[in-house]
Amino acid sequence: xxxxxxxxxxxxxxLGRPADSVCLIAVTKTCPAEAICAAYAAGVRHFGxxxxxxxxxxxxxxxxxxxxxxxxxxxLQRNKARRAVALFQRIDxxxxxxxxxxxxxxxxxxxxxxPVLIEVRLSEEPDKTGVEPGSLFPLxxxxxxxxxxxxxxxxxxxxxxxxxDFARPYFRRxxxxxxxxxxxxxxxxxxxxMGMTHDFEIAIxxxxxxxxxxxxIFGPRAGPAAEAD
Length: 229
Hints:
Elements: H1 2-14, E1 23-27, H2 33-41, E2 46-49, H3 52-62, E3 69-72, H4 81-87, E4 90-94, H5 97-109, E5 114-119, H6 133-145, E6 149-155, H7 168-185, E7 191-193, H8 200-205, E8 210-213, H9 215-218
Parallel strand pairs: 1-2, 1-8, 2-3, 3-4, 4-5, 5-6, 6-7
Helix pairs in contact: 2-3, 4-5, 6-7
């Protein structure tokens, strides 16, 4: 745990950025509540969950961790938007207008402003979710107009490769899209969520402000959950 935190800080410092300028999000899907509590005790404050139902089941066991924030980082279906608004501090995977409007509706009912990221699909892999780059600006425009959503930035998951540097063009492209969209909207988008266990240092070099690490903290996962972090 400490090793990952130290690597994140060191990568930022190498680029002349403050050590705390990159947020570590511990990906806790399939992890028991005890693992979340242990990560919190070691200094982690941001956690990413992929499924609404899984986090609902663990939430009571985790209890109230002061200062902790839980992010929805997996694909979110519209029929789970109400529950997601109640469960998470931020939704990092908005990829269509219908979902954004549902989140806005339920955030209004909850009398809160919900921070969100737009997930961008930069690869041709059929199983990847996210909005296509060509449709990003219209979606960002509409999300920015939602009265109870706060558009904070962009997120992406590049194609898997054992070579960490393979992801660099995807990270660079997300940064370029962020800069373009922020300029066109005249709306600051400070968050770039990109980079996982095997490539987060490359992501930081390309401007990541948040990295999502699961295996590097909690060890290998078995089965389908293994490849996303």
